[in-house]
Structures are given as C-alpha cells and as structure tokens.
Amino acid sequence: MTNQAIRQCLAGRQLLETEVPFPKEVLHRSLHVNHQPALQSEFGHWHCRRCGNDEQALFYTHECARCKQQCTYCRYCIRLGKASSCTLLYTWVGALFSYRPLFSACAWRGTLTSAQAVAAKALVRAVEQAHVHLLWAVCGAGKTEVLYPALARSFALGYRVAIVAPRIDVIKELAPRLYEAFPKVSQSVWYAGSRKQPLHAQLVLATTHQLMRYQHAFDVVIVDEVDAFPYAYDERLQRAVERARKNVSAFILLSATPSRQIQKQYRFHQTKISRRFHGHDLPLPSLQWCGHWRKDLQQGKLPKKVRAWMMSHRIKPKMIFVPSVHILEQLSISLKRADMAHVAVHAQSQARHTDVALYRRGEVDCIVTTTILERGITIKGLQVAVLGAEDHIFTEAALVQISGRVGRNQAEPTGDIVFFHHGKTKAMKKAIAHIVSMNEEE
C-alpha cells in the first residue's frame, strides 16, 4: 500500500473513512493525508464538514451499531454515505495530479454563429484569466457548442474541468455529446446510481450534489442551469461547488433564465445570446382557458381542450407538464381511459430514466411530467402543453424553460406551446413578455 495508491484515491477529494479502502494506521502514517471528524459540535450545535449543513433539524442522534453508543449523523447528505460523529473525513494535502496539454482535443467540426463566436471568445478569456463569467443564452441557443472552444483551451493548458448541473437529466443529455466532441479527453460522469467511473478523469460531469466529494480539484468549474432547483436555493450546494474549485480557477455560469440577483451580480462579467442557433424566434405560448380541469380529472375525465390538443398533434411527440405528482397520476388515469398511450414521470418515479429513454427513442409519443423535465431534454418536432399553468409552481422562469423545449431542432424550428389554465397569472404574462423581449433583440 503505497503513498501513490492513497494519492490516487484521495487527491482532490474528501471522503469518509468508509469510502477509503485503506486501514486507518496506513492513512495516519501518511504525511499528505489530513483527517478530522465528519461532524463537528460546538455547544450542542452540529455542523457537517462534508456538506456544510448547519440546519439542526437535519441531524439525528441514535444508538449507533458501528460505535455502540449515542451517535449523531447528517441527514442532508446521507445519500452520499453516512457522515456521523464517529466517522472520520479524509482529505489529501499533497500535490494533485497533473494533466499533459492536449492540443486539438475538440473533434466537433461545426460552425458557430456570430453571436455564439462572441460568447465563446469571452469564455476562453475567462479560462485563460481564471475569471468568473455568466453566459445568458436563450433556450436552444446552442450553449453546449459555445463551450467547446473554452474546453479545448482548458485541455490545451492541461487544466482539469468540471461541468455540473442540479439535475441528472441535464448531465445525461450532456455526457454523450461531450464524449463525441472530446474523444481524446478522459471523462467521468457522476450522479446518484451511476456506475463506477475513473477517479481522476480530466473532464468530470456531475450533479452538483456529487461535488461534495471534491476539494480544490478543478481549474475550471462550469455550472449549467445555475438558476435551477435545488442549486439556486441551497447554499450548501453552492459552497460545495465553490470548495471544489482550486484557489485560482475559472468559474462559468450558464442559464437561459438567470435570476435578477445573478444578473446583477455578474452584470460586468456576462455575455448574452438572445437568438437561437438556427436564427428563428422562440415559439410564443398561447393561453387557453380550460375551465374546471381539476374537477374533470377527479372524475377520471380528460379535459376536452387537452383531448383536442392531443388529437391535433397525434403524429407528433408531445409533452404535458403538470403542477404535482397527484395531478400527474390523475391525468395518467384519464389518458389510459381515453386509450392514449403515454408514460408519466416525476422525481421519485422508479422507472423514470427508462421511461424517458423510451420517449427519446420515439417508442412512445407522449410524456406527462412534473417540472423535473423543464430542462435538459431536446426532442425533434416536440409539442408542449402546461396543464394548470395558473399553479404557483409555474414561475416565470419555469414557464420560459418549458416553452424553450419547443422548436430547438433546425429542421423543425417551430412548434406549439400552450398554457391551459383556470385563470391567468402574472407569471404567465411575464413569461410571454420575456420571450417577446428576447425575440426583439438582435
């Protein structure tokens, strides 16, 4: 058991002792390994060193089978493994791995639009100067391709890069595109349930939660969908991303709907792309009053306007967003009774990823979903409806993102997006105004 093997396991990471495959005595002899309790307690106030959780309601004390006494653990990061008061957290304090410069790493041979090229140059400068930068790009602007020059420059400089997003679906959509664009670059993809990956890949794709296992590891960190739940509302995730950066590093944020706070914070370090890569306008939502649609669903009936909408697009892929799991289940029953084939997915769906894969392959042409799929899915010829658009869950940003699923393919740059409602809301009006404003910009 050499120091090199320990370095291979721990460099750039922070791991619980239960995740490190070396005996304690070996780890404690190493001059390059630091260890401390995973939880810290001061005057009865608990703090998790791994995730940064300070919310006392998310700590639980019980009789521990491991230490045979009363033991406290953090419930916030439990899915990453049990961080408890009897568990040590290990970090590497020696030299990190270096990566040889990779020139001409990008295999993509497409052409950027003039707006994309301007944004790409700004991101390259951010990488070279280790600056922060916000890329504010409308849905369908081709922001992944805009990243390619900055990624190519990073690998030419021998940098290690992390691209993270709050939601698994976004990472799953990005991964195959980046494998294809950068086939010579070692890559790993981390999310809950992912298979074992290379520990020191030069390009890491991960959900933001997974960065809790990293510390001062990356020269460049790119956060996609920076305004999305839960990252935008959870300081623990934001701290985890910050901690994963090296002290001198570039930090790039991507969003189609940045909050006003983010817009203000990065007003001097941002680039905006207000047109889609194919040059067509963003599809404008239509508003359709749908009456007492909840009552229809309670009676197992499909609202007439929803049925008519589905029939009008019967040969096209369709996506229906609903405000809750309860409504999703009711709508699914109504669709089955109407003999309309579909899949229904939400965050806790056991078959979620399988059903989404079936939908992507065209084996089913309708998917009913909560806002979990408002981002990170691109389907040619997609038609979209929001049922219950008046619900508070459908904020301006959510409605803009949902509308942005339509017309993303160059061969079919238009499509239908309809908000079925029982009363117009400010969020609906603001979403439409937002889209109109983007369409009016050059």
Low-confidence stretches: none
* Count of separate structural domains: 3
Total helical segments: 13
- Helix/strand-derived category reads alpha/beta
* CATH fold annotation of the largest domain: Rossmann fold
Mean pLDDT reading: 94
GO biological process, one term: DNA replication initiation
Organism: Shouchella lonarensis
Domain Helicase C-terminal: 305-442
Keywords: ATP-binding, DNA-binding, Nucleotide-binding
Layout of secondary structure:
Layout: H1 3-10, E1 14-16, H2 24-29, E2 33-37, E3 39-42, E4 45-48, E5 59-63, E6 70-74, E7 88-92, H3 114-129, E8 132-137, H4 143-156, E9 161-165, H5 168-181, E10 187-190, E11 203-207, E12 218-223, H6 235-244, E13 245-255, H7 260-265, E14 270-273, E15 286-289, H8 293-298, H9 304-312, E16 318-321, H10 325-337, E17 343-345, H11 352-360, E18 366-369, E19 383-387, H12 396-403, E20 417-421, H13 426-440
Parallel strand pairs: 8-13, 8-14, 9-11, 9-12, 10-11, 12-13, 15-20, 16-18, 16-19, 17-18, 19-20
Antiparallel strand pairs: 1-7, 2-7, 3-4, 5-6
Helix pairs in contact: 3-4, 12-13
Describe this structure as you would to a colleague.
The chain is built from 13 helices and 20 strands. It has helices at 3-10, 24-29, 114-129, 143-156, 168-181, 235-244, 260-265, 293-298, 304-312, 325-337, 352-360, 396-403, 426-440, and strands spanning 14-16, 33-37, 39-42, 45-48, 59-63, 70-74, 88-92, 132-137, 161-165, 187-190, 203-207, 218-223, 245-255, 270-273, 286-289, 318-321, 343-345, 366-369, 383-387, 417-421. It is α/β, with parallel strands linked by helices. Helix 3 packs parallel to helix 4 (143-156) and helix 12 crosses helix 13 (426-440). The radius of gyration is 24 Å and the shape is globular. The protein folds into three domains: 3-92, no CATH class; 114-273, 3-Layer(aba) Sandwich (Rossmann fold); 286-440, Rossmann fold (3-Layer(aba) Sandwich), CATH 3.40.50.300. The strands form five sheets. A seven-stranded parallel β-sheet has the order 10-11-9-12-13-8-14. Strands 15-20-19-16-18-17 form a six-stranded parallel β-sheet, with helices on both faces. Strands 1-7-2 form a three-stranded antiparallel β-sheet.
